[in-house]
Specification:
Layout: E1 13-18, H1 22-38, E2 43-47, H2 58-66, E3 71-75, H3 81-90, E4 95-99, E5 110-113, H4 119-126, H5 133-143, H6 154-164, H7 168-183, H8 187-199, H9 208-225, E6 230-231, E7 236-240, H10 248-258, E8 263-269, E9 273-280, H11 289-296, E10 300-304, E11 307-313, H12 317-331
Parallel strand pairs: 1-2, 1-3, 3-4, 4-5, 7-8
Antiparallel strand pairs: 6-7, 8-9, 9-11, 10-11
Helix pairs in contact: 1-4, 1-5, 1-8, 4-5, 5-6, 5-7, 7-9
Length: 333
């Protein structure tokens, strides 16, 4: 396959650095299965950044070197350019970036990008695989109900649903179960889930551990969405998410469904940083313009036209918050 055609024979150990959500996990599972089938002589392991961090720390760069990896594949994670540049210094000419988010100017990497609803769909295309359940889970994971309006990909979703006798509701439930790992900070559960995605994805519907996660998550989300939403402007709503769980994305998605004409701005303060989400549903505003704005302020940011994540060091939050709010008001004026 052309994507890995120059992967040298003597490179025996590699790592897949993947996003932590459903599309990221199924993308990792697709790649693992591919390597096990096509390159069984190569050992490929998994790695994910700290949940919520779209960058690597100094300790993580050191760890990747210490493990003796000889090539690196990143999937479904829109790293800033400097992260890929640093990886390219450690693993020259053996960095493969597969992503469907906002196109980034990466140097030192073999970059495979397409504006496509899910990274799993891009991987399926790049590897010349048949339409499959993991691809569909990636599509539903990233787009949820909105995939039903996609004239290209929803017929594929329907085809796979029929093959497995699944309903769309069950696909949404699988997404929630898979995502429950990162939401509850369960790294072990994430690895166990990827292993099941490789062999028996439908078994996740009856996974007791994941079902228990959902009970905890549902109670916390319900508590948070019952809080009053602040109206920043006629078109922008704000909610401060105060919780120990990684539910910022889920709460933002819920509010976006509840207020489809508005831009939803949420943020969650942690010990060292503030994680921000900006999402739109029916609005035509391309919130991805916030990415360049954030990069100009030396902030980590990534996303797509409909959603952007920004990470702000806690020490700079008091200065950044009013600037971010002003930028949102300008975007929607």
């Amino acid at each position: 396959m052309a994507i890995f055609s120059n992967l040298q024979v003597n490179l025996k150990k590699g790592v897949i650095i993947h996003h932590w959500d459903t599309d990221g996990l199924v993308s990792a599972a697709l790649l693992l299965n591919y390597f096990q089938q096509q390159y069984p002589e190569k050992k490929v392991e998994l790695f994910t950044p700290v949940f919520g961090n779209y960058y690597l720390t100094t300790e993580q760069y050191d760890y990747l070197q210490q493990q003796g990896y000889q090539f690196v594949i990143t999937c479904d994670i829109n790293f800033p350019a400097e992260t890929i540049t640093q990886l390219a210094k450690l693993f020259p000419e053996q960095i493969y970036v597969i992503d469907h988010h906002r196109k980034t100017d990466y140097s030192g990497a073999q970059y495979f990008h397409e504006n496509i609803p899910a990274c799993a769909a891009l991987i399926t295309k790049l590897l010349n695989l048949s339409n499959n359940l993991l691809m569909v889970l990636g599509l539903v994971g990233d787009k949820e109900e909105l995939i039903q309006a996609d004239k290209i990909y929803y017929p594929i979703v329907q085809e796979v649903m029929a093959d497995y006798n699944l309903t769309f509701t069950q696909l949404l439930e699988l997404r929630r179960l898979i995502d429950s790992n990162y939401i509850t900070n369960d790294y072990v559960g994430m690895l166990e889930t990827i292993a099941l995605l490789q062999t028996d994805p439908l078994s996740l519907l009856n996974d007791v551990r994941l079902q228990e996660h959902l009970v905890t998550i549902n109670a916390e989300i319900q508590h948070l969405i019952n809080k009053s939403v602040e109206q920043l402007s006629a078109k922008v709503k704000l909610l401060v998410v105060d919780t120990q769980l990684q539910v910022l994305s889920q709460v933002t998605r819920h509010l976006s469904r509840q207020y489809p004409a508005d831009i939803i701005f949420t943020y969650q303060v942690t010990a060292a940083q503030v994680n921000c989400y900006v999402r739109r549903r029916n609005s035509t505003v391309a919130v991805s313009s916030l990415i360049d704005w954030a990069h100009d302020l030396n902030l980590n940011a990534g996303g797509k036209p409909e959603v952007v994540g920004i990470i702000v060091p806690l020490a700079h939050w008091a200065t950044i918050l009013p600037k971010l709010q002003a930028k949102l008001l300008t975007l929607t004026a």
